[in-house]
Amino acid sequence: MLGAAAVTAACPPADAVAAIRAALRDGLDPSVDLPRQAVPLAAGQFLLMPSDGGGDRSHVGIKVATVAPANPERGLPRIQGSYLLLDAATLGVVAVLDGIALTTLRTPAVSVAAVLDRLLTGTAPLRVAVLGSGPQAHGHVATLAGALAGHRTPGPVAQLVRDPGRAAPIDGARLVQLGAPDSDDALRAADVVVCATSAREPLFDAGLITDTATVIAVGSHEPDARELPADLLARATVVVEDPGAALREAGDVVLAIADGALTAADLVPMRDVVTGAVRPDPARPLVFKSTGMSWEDLVVAEAVLTGAR
Predict the structure, then answer these.
(1) Which residue in 14, 206, 225, 293 has its CB near the most CB atoms, within 10 A?
(2) From residue 251, how far is each of 76, 171, 226 by CA, in Å?
């Protein structure tokens, strides 16, 4: 039984990034991942995320998460959950992990795994703009620092939020009100832009993003909500976990296609980037759009188990 603190202690962010990249290089194919299911409940919904890793791993697993929209008014988390890691041959339970801690660890690990090769091409400090103040905003900064240790230093970091007075500040970051002139300046200067918000409409103008910037968007996983403007995707290399999943769930992608700014054929699977089969054009923005997939939880849960043992 691994609670939140044990999950965090067992697997540093850099180890989670390495586990994701190793799984893809060893042949894991996200396109054959088992589909997740949303089951309606009176107070919200179950989210069931099973994975067998394509059938060739030593473990299988399932995350059972609940979404209770009224919980924040009660002072309780909106999303809660647990992860069951099982032996692939016997289907016996090997470990139970805190599901939210696992998600908080694996989401930025997937993002950084997808764009790491691009970020390692330079040596200067990495200028980062983070939109949001929740766990994923914090987690992406920590994961960038861990994965780039010895190569590049993330910093300075600008944290862009709608209400600086209510934000949870990231250690060492400069708080900036989103939409203010300082916010636009931070986006123009950023080497990496991380969008980790609950926004349903684009957060900034595409013209603020330089051609050499890397943009990570993790906040939206609904087909009718997006954080990024279509004009940015139109001039970027757009990398996704799996094109099929992105076309079902990634509003940034779905709406850009509807706007005529992108086509399904333009989408690049992250597996191809990690294995080197595709090398994104360094003269174009690199956009990674994540929705979260079940195989990622399985791979990182295995890394957590290895670290715990």
Answers:
(1) 293
(2) 28, 30, 5
Question: Are residues 127 and 84 part of one domain?
Answer: no
Question: What size, in residues, is the chain?
Answer: 309
Q: Report whether pLDDT(155) > 90.
A: no
How high is the pLDDT of residue 153?
A: 85
Whether residue 246 contacts residue 252, with contact meaning beta carbons closer than 8 Å, is answered with: no
Please report, for the domain that includes residue 149, its CATH number: 3.40.50.720
Per-position DSSP letters for 144-155, written without gaps between them: HHHHHTTT--EE
Check whether residue 200 and residue 213 sit in a common domain.
yes
Question: Is the model's pLDDT at 90 over the cut of 90?
Answer: yes
What CATH number has the domain bearing residue 34?
3.30.1780.10
Same domain, 130 and 249: yes
> How many domains, the chain?
2
* Residues paired with 65 in a beta bridge: 47, 81
Report pLDDT digits (tens) over 242-260: 999 999 999 999 999 999 9
- Is this prediction's pTM over 0.90? yes
Query: Do 96 and 115 have their domain in common?
Result: no
Give Dmax over CA atoms of the chain in angstroms.
59
DSSP helix/strand/coil, 122: coil
Segment 188-194 shows an average pLDDT of 97
